[in-house]
Queue: 3 jobs
Job 1
Amino acid sequence: MRLYLAAPTRAAAELAAATAALLALGFAVTSATVADAIDADDLTEVVAGDLDAVAAADALVTVGDCSTLFEPAMAEAFGVPVVTLAEALAGAR
């Protein structure tokens, strides 16, 4: 099962822990591409790649408060279920 993880910018440690936990359970995990100091064309490519990953996921997993992020809204638009990390971990057991 392919999961896309979404987390607020300041939740790097939580995102890393969630990624490790889900990988250990056998999930394929991806998240937003980190892109520092890139031009507009590169940013467009990065965002397009992230949107493709959201659309291809079996579920989008939120780590922390993702209410202001675009990924959960895009997942819903693509028909991809949005679940919390707790729900994803509980469903894997």
Note: The two ends are 14 Å apart (CA to CA).
Job 2
Amino acid sequence: MAAQIRAREAAAQAALDNNYDTAAHAAALDEKCAVLIDLPDRITPLLTDMPRHLAEMIQDQVRNMALRARQARKVNSVFYKASLLYPDDYAPGQPNELELFIEQLG
């Protein structure tokens, strides 16, 4: 799912780079939000064999990401959608919040 998010972000950037297609840019970022919103449901089956405290911690983290994606969709802010998962001091090439979380679990 982290790769899906990166692919949506790349599509959004490509839309801007190619003819400044703001509609395609916004659509790709909306798809990014959809992936994040679906994240809690998609990972639930993977948590069944984990210790309860770990499964709950993972669910809490991804629910928070999903909540922020829902909020971004609600306010319909392209900026908010684009900045999901990235801190203010993010530099290109660094892992995003979801990727860092996955690394911590590994």
Note: The two ends are 15 Å apart (CA to CA).
Job 3
Amino acid sequence: MIQNHDPDYEPLHPERLTWSVLLGRWVTFAKSALALPSDDAGRRLRDAVPDIITLQAVWFSLENLDELDADERALGLDKAQVLIEKHTAALEQAWAEEPMPKELLELIHDAKTALQEQRGQEG
């Protein structure tokens, strides 16, 4: 094993790497949304990017909620619920006239399920 004796050296943290990978993926997704066609479907998806990214971030945060103190965890659950409701409503409104893409339905389901699971662990 290689030892690093540099006092400024910080080991890699998998949870930070995971967050960095996730963030990089969504930055790439957001940039690619700029190339969507300017028709109704392309515009709808482009406008939904912030909602999609927020729901993904909430899901990820819920998966790592056990890293917080109990008081912060309760507040995090409340914030997660508000964000899930807000961004789900925005997506539902955007697709009110069309069937929502399967991937978005799965994202909403995953975020809501993660919240329910964390609420179940709270008690």
Note: The radius of gyration is 18 Å.
